[in-house]
């Protein structure tokens, strides 16, 4: 039997950081039914009181105190949350004193700064990166490969598009991708356009059984989705990577975030933001 | 004059969480030139020693201890990092004891769990959401609007595409978007296809001067990018939102993450993951 506990992620901004660290901590505890609620933009006394009320209500309903994962910066609103009786995990205050000591200066304690700095250039740059990924998706065009930071390649459904989009959104990287289609694979050679950009090239591979499963969801009972076809395509793609010394990663067991970060790690490619 | 300090984000996985919280904390301190290095996948003794060596080297070069923001789960590797002499901000260990007390159980202390759970359904679901956003971008088709969780609308370059992609990637939400083009705006009416889905509709607006700037980067000196045109389009779009009671948000001063989270906050739309 699992125990139900309500968990709140509270922030004066989006709550994305509180969610990320909180969820990571929660995965360390099994046997619980964690009911998760995100309270974003808690940036006024009224909203802080409303958030505290929700914590109080959930704790009563569960019969045990709710957990609060907070990146709330404003002391006043934090105090209101603590009065709710929830158990506070303060992702901000826990570190700020030690940071003040380490850096030998006081923190500005300014709410909402996390996205405030350099917003203009960051925003334009990321939009540019996203548009680049969209315009250079799936080999749609190859004429901007000079501008690309990286060019992903791999068979259909190996994870190229989501990885490019994540690289763009999270890191502002200019990521293009080029599909290895059957005609390419049958030549046993790297397509010529990719041969000219080998230093930017990174391959994706995938377990053929998993690929078969993914393709079947899209087009069941097709030759495209058949296990035989998936096995042949993956084998030939990996042969091409090996014979051309193209670095590659197996995407079968990892998340989109992990694929993207592995690529940064292995290539030494710098985050633009 | 700014003081240089090197900051390391260290993780046994991607380091994305360590970066998010660490960067947020750093924005509270001005007057420093923070040199940032992310060390991902520090999941062996050898890699931990190599990471510690980099911390030692940076501290010597700066003449002052580097900062380490860590979500490292394995005690042994954490200890190796601490021996480097860097100042450790431990985003994991700082909370895990209090969580064990609160939940009345021991943590599993298992590395790499954060992305391990339910990976298959999460991955497939997110890929589906990303493909949905791509296939239903910019009004390309409207026939899947029944399936959509949300339909964004707004003038060209108001932020629809990146917001839809972020909603898909981060939250697994099925987000379509439909552009308000000049022909639509001239009718002073909500396009008919959107009238049928008003409950799913969310508008984006933008400061006309900012829109003029964004459009000029793309097509300078065009009628499309002219301030006059931008002012007229934004005014008419907002008139349409008001007369049809379409909720909307001004995207001018906020990040993509914030636009997406504001939409969740205002609509009560549930995250799928």
N/C terminus separation of chain A: 45 Å
How many discrete domains of chain A?
Answer: 2
SS summary, helix count of chain A? 11
% residues in beta strands of chain A: 15-25%
Query: What's the total count of β strands of chain A?
Result: 8
Please give the order of strands in the largest beta sheet of chain A.
2-1-3-4
Overall 3D form of chain A: elongated
**CATH class category label of the largest domain in chain A:** Alpha Beta
- Identify the most extensive interface between protein chains: A-B, 75 and 75 residues
Content-based structural category of chain A = alpha/beta
Mean pLDDT of chain A: 93
Question: What does the main sheet of chain A amount to?
Answer: 4 strands, parallel
Task: Give the CATH topology of the largest domain in chain A.
Answer: Rossmann fold
SSE succession of chain A: EHEHEHEHHEHEHHEHHEH
Helical content band of chain A:
40-55%
> What oligomeric assembly is this protein in?
homodimer
User: Radius of gyration of chain A, rounded?
Assistant: 24 Å
Give the low-pLDDT segments of chain A.
114-118
């Amino acid at each position: 039997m699992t125990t139900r506990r309500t968990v709140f992620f509270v922030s004066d901004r989006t709550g994305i950081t509180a969610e990320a660290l909180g969820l990571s901590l929660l995965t360390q505890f099994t046997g619980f039914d964690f009911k998760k609620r995100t309270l974003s933009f808690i940036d006024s006394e009224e909203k802080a009181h409303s958030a505290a009320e929700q914590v109080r209500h959930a704790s009563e309903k569960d019969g045990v105190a709710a957990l609060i994962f907070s990146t709330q910066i404003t002391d006043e609103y934090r105090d209101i949350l603590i009065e709710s009786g929830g158990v506070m995990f303060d992702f901000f205050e826990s570190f700020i004193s030690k940071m003040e000591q380490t850096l030998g200066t006081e923190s500005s304690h300014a709410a909402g700064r996390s996205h405030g700095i350099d917003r203009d250039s960051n925003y334009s740059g990321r939009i540019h990166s996203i548009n680049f990924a969209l315009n250079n998706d799936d080999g749609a065009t190859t004429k901007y490969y000079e501008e690309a930071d990286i060019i992903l390649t791999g068979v259909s459904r190996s994870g190229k598009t989501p990885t490019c989009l994540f690289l763009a959104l999270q890191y502002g990287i200019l990521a293009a991708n080029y599909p290895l289609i059957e005609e390419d694979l049958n030549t046993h050679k790297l397509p010529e356009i990719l041969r000219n950009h080998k230093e930017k090239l990174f391959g994706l591979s995938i377990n053929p059984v998993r690929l078969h499963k993914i393709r079947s969801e899209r087009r069941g009972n097709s030759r495209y989705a058949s296990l035989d076809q998936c096995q042949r395509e993956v084998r030939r793609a990996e042969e091409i990577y090996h014979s051309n010394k193209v670095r590659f990663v197996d995407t079968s067991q990892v998340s989109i975030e992990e694929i993207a970060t592995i690529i940064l790690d292995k290539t030494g490619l710098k985050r633009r933001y």
